[in-house]
Design a protein that fits this description.
Elements lengths: L2 H13 L6 H12 L1 H18 L8 H15 L2
Helix pairs in contact: 1-2, 1-3, 1-4, 2-3
This protein binds zinc ion.
Zinc ion binds next to helix 1 and helix 3.
Length: 77
């Protein structure tokens, strides 16, 4: 498994905003150094932020799970 695989598998931890996890610092450092992971993270982040920008439709548990499911599929292509 490459660093990139490891990072992408754990990206949702950054997206969930729990920056206190030690792994988030590792992930962020990789994103700073790796253009392809940074691009992927940016795309996913935009989707998540779009969801958050509609407070009348807060990101539900269901959507959250769909997003995770989507990420999982993306990572196993
Ligand atoms: Zn990478």
């Amino acid at each position: 498994m490459t660093d990139c695989d490891k990072v992408l598998k754990n990206l949702y931890k950054l997206l969930e905003g729990d920056g206190s996890l030690p792994i988030c610092r590792v992930l962020q450092e990789h994103l700073d150094a790796c253009e392809s992971c940074a691009r992927f993270y940016k795309e996913i982040k935009e989707v998540v932020e779009l969801c958050r920008n509609f407070p009348e439709e807060p990101i539900s548990e269901e959507h959250h799970n769909k997003l995770k499911e989507f990420l999982r599929k993306e990572l196993h292509k």
